[in-house]
Automatic annotation (TrEMBL), chain A:
It comes from the Bacteria. Transmembrane segments: none annotated. Belongs to the ABC transporter superfamily. GO terms for molecular function: ATP binding; ATP hydrolysis activity; branched-chain amino acid transmembrane transporter activity. This is ABC transporter ATP-binding protein. Keywords: Amino-acid transport, ATP-binding, Nucleotide-binding, Transport.
TrEMBL record, chain B:
It is a multi-pass membrane protein. It is found in: Cell membrane. GO terms for molecular function: transmembrane transporter activity. Its main location: membrane. It comes from Alsobacter soli. The keyword Cell membrane applies. Keywords: Amino-acid transport, Cell membrane, Membrane, Transmembrane, Transmembrane helix, Transport. This is Amino acid ABC transporter permease. The chain crosses the membrane at residues 6-27, 34-52, 58-78, 93-116, 136-160, 181-209, 221-251, 258-277.
């Protein structure tokens, strides 16, 4: 469904990604793991054309996206939850989620339906977006993405800065939301436990290049890879 | 005294009609549009072409104002495509210089098209009268201005705070990158905001035409007060601009009665003191 080949990405003159190639199948859940600064966020933003300058192939459902602006990509079923979440402070939680519907139009889900899927959001649905904890913000951000009924949801380091108990809750909710809506998942993470809970296979990215591809048991069989690219 | 206040409110609403478009374009696009006054003036000239010095009827006058809004809105679209849109991603200083250049071009164009002669315009029938309540004498045109200003304010406030289009525009103003990631066609929404702001300028030009001396320097007349209202109201805040405009109008009016020898001084003293006390504007935040 998503095919990326020879992808280079630049911020100004500095090249961040070097010939990245990945694929994500229909309804498949895939993780991109790697250290800080390895290029995880840049990769996800490149797929949305939301920041870096990009060259190479990004093919989505057989169509080469070239320089299509990000709002069009959203309408084709791609969705990115950025690592800083970016919840709108001027409207409530429910309105944040409803916003996705008015933005993307079409067949998006009503906020009430989405909120039911995320138990944590029910008691806070009328709270202003500016008064949420980090975990609540992340839940709202995921719910907002799900509301647009993406075919591929991209989460950028969702567990960053969250308490362990929230991380467990988030893993359950993210996986359930993907399974229920049939959405594929591309997850950028440093938290291997979380990534493993949510996905079936992974890529390791290091210095802007893919250095490992396989399922989680394959990673277990390659302790040297883990040591070299993921140990802190 | 009451007369002074009503007179002041009428001036204030005139200021607000100009300030509304200014604060809208600032709130959403962060553009300080120097050319706003010039487009206000073009709106006045367009309306003048339709109604002449003695507007034959109230309806034609209103129609001419709407037409002025539409013409200036179209000019806004052209200005956005040729100038503003190209400068969205560069330093704000370029935008200031560019809108100043547009101001000069507009003033030149007005002189070329309509000449440098002065024209004065009377209020249309029904608005050339006065309402007399006891000892109070209120020109109907002043009453009309106050009513129209309140109407424009209520309509804008509802549009921005109660409609989804308004909420999306606020979202763009707060975080255009994320709003785009939700699927909003941000470039089109920004162009729409520019057109709306220019339409307000054109409409104001038409509505404020009576009791004006129409000349190529009209552009600057309300612009200064409107800028002050926008700053005091909190940049980008419609409600703030509305209240600040009313306040400024009343201060102007009162000072012209109480201190007739030094016109304008009270306004500037007020602005300086206000900004020292509340530099963030009336409601303390810079959001729409």
């Amino acid at each position: 469904m998503l095919k990326v080949e020879r992808l280079d990405a630049f911020y100004g003159d500095s090249q961040v990604l070097h010939g990245v190639g990945i694929t994500v199948g229909d309804g498949e859940r895939v993780a991109i793991v790697g250290r800080n600064g390895a290029g995880k966020s840049t990769l996800l933003k490149s797929l949305m054309n939301a920041g870096p300058r990009v060259s190479g192939l990004v093919e989505w459902q057989g169509e080469n996206l070239r320089d299509m602006p990000s709002f069009r990509r959203v309408r084709l079923g791609l969705s990115l939850v950025p690592e800083d979440r970016r919840i709108f402070g001027h409207v409530t939680v429910a309105e944040n989620i409803e916003m996705a519907r008015y933005a993307a139009g079409g067949n998006a889900l009503p906020a009430a339906v989405v909120i039911e899927r995320f138990p944590m959001l029910v008691p806070i649905k009328d709270r202003p977006g500016g008064r949420l904890s980090g975990g609540q913000q992340q839940m709202v951000a995921v719910a907002r993405a799900i509301a647009a009924r993406p075919k591929l949801m991209m989460l950028d380091e969702p567990t960053e800065g969250l308490a362990p108990v929230i991380v467990e809750q988030l893993a359950r909710d993210v996986k359930a939301a993907c399974v229920e809506t049939g959405a594929a998942l591309l997850l950028s993470e440093q938290n291997l436990w979380f990534a493993r809970q949510c996905t079936d296979r992974l890529y390791i990215i290091d210095s802007g290049q893919i250095v490992f591809s396989g399922d989680w048991p394959a990673l277990d069989r390659a302790p040297d890879v883990k040591q070299r690219y993921l140990a802190v | 005294m009451l007369f002074t206040i009503i007179n002041g409110l009428a001036t204030g609403m005139a200021v607000f009609l100009v300030a509304a478009g200014l604060t809208l374009i600032f709130g959403i696009l962060k553009i300080l549009n120097f050319a706003h006054g010039a487009f206000f003036m073009i709106g006045a000239y367009v309306a003048f072409m339709i109604v002449g010095s003695n507007p034959p009827s109230l309806w034609l006058f209103l129609l001419a104002s709407v037409a002025a809004g539409l013409v200036v809105g179209a000019l806004g679209f052209i200005t956005d495509r040729t100038v503003l849109r190209r400068l969205r991603d560069v330093d704000e200083a370029y935008m200031l210089i560019a809108t100043f250049a547009v101001l000069l071009i507009c003033e030149g164009a007005v002189k070329l098209i309509w000449g440098v002669n002065y024209a004065s315009i009377n209020p249309p029938p029904l608005l050339d009268d006065a309402i007399i309540v006891g000892s109070l004498f209120i020109p109907t045109y002043s009453a009309f201005l106050i009513g129209f200003g309140v109407l424009v304010y209520v309509a804008l406030d509802l549009a921005i705070h109660r409609t989804w289009l308004g909420k999306l525009l606020q979202a763009i103003s707060n975080d255009s990158w994320m709003t785009g990631l939700l699927g909003v066609n941000v470039p089109v929404a920004l162009t729409l905001s520019v057109v709306a702001s220019f339409m307000l300028a054109g409409l104001a030009g038409g509505i404020l035409l009576p009791n004006q001396t129409l000349s190529p320097v009209l552009g600057g007349s309300y612009l200064l007060l409107a800028f002050i209202a926008v700053i005091i109201g909190g940049l980008g805040d419609i409600r703030g601009a509305f209240i600040a405009s009313a306040l400024l109008g009343v201060i102007e009016s009162a000072s012209s009665v109480l201190l007739p020898n030094i016109p304008g001084l009270a306004t500037y003293v007020f602005v300086v003191v206000f900004l020292l006390v509340k530099p963030q504007g009336l409601f303390g935040s810079a959001s729409t």
